[in-house]
Specification:
217 residues; mainly beta; Elongation Factor Tu (Ef-tu), domain 3; 2 domains; 7-stranded antiparallel beta sheet; 6-stranded antiparallel beta barrel; 39% strand
Length: 217
């Protein structure tokens, strides 16, 4: 059984071809490591986007991309030859090296700046208010499927620090200011918001600010 993702990238693959329909696409991606046990129907996070394996040929797999995915992610900006981060869904007996990642993208950000910081690179991402509402300093976020820690934030965006290992094993540092990236916020914040602010009168949450304060949160 496989569940979710961790944001720890297994390898960098390559988009071999994109077959574009009227509003949807089929993409074919090549790789190496993930093919050791890949099967039809498996889930693979491609730049953080959960896609289902529809066909396998050698060390290439194809996946169908629906209009919703193209409209809500940066996938449509990629082309044949683009490098992408790949991660198989986590095995139930696996170890969480990053954080819980669903592969469902919340929004798109834009790289605003990259700056050297001793042995690391500080990357600033700008995005809209709907994504920033779940961003907290020292919290987690997945950028193109990479589990990262937020080092700073303001009303327009946030920053992350990329260590040499992460830079070498993922695509993030190959991008440039102006490039788009997929963002997935931490699941916990979204669930807490839903519990605190139910959207219908028929659903009454017992989790309130007063309850959290009373119990030391």
């Amino acid at each position: 059984m496989r569940i979710l993702f961790t944001g720890i990238i297994e390898e960098v693959g390559k988009i071999e071809r994109i077959e574009r329909g009227a509003r949807s696409s089929r993409i074919t991606i090549s790789g190496d490591v993930i093919f050791s046990d890949l099967k039809l129907g498996d889930s693979v996070a491609v730049d953080g986007i959960c896609l289902t394996v529809a066909a396998i040929s050698g060390k290439q797999f194809s996946a169908d991309v629906m209009p919703e995915t193209l409209s809500r992610t940066a996938l449509g900006a990629l082309q044949s030859g683009s490098a992408v981060n790949l991660e198989r869904a986590m095995a139930a007996n696996g170890r969480f090296g990053g954080h819980i990642v669903s592969g469902h993208i919340d929004g798109v950000g834009k790289i605003a700046q990259m700056q050297s910081d001793d042995n690391a690179i500080q990357v600033r991402i700008e995005t809209d208010a709907s994504s920033l509402r779940y961003v907290i300093e020292k919290g987690s976020i997945a950028i193109d499927g990479i589990s990262l820690t937020i080092t700073g934030m303001d009303e327009r965006g946030f920053s992350v620090s990329i260590i040499p290992h992460t830079g070498a094993e993922t695509t993030l540092l190959s991008k440039r200011p102006g490039d788009l990236v997929n963002l997935e916020n931490d699941l916990i914040g979204k669930y807490v918001e839903r519990l605190l602010h139910p959207q219908t009168e028929s659903v009454k949450s017992k989790l309130t600010y007063e309850f959290l304060a009373e119990h030391g949160f």
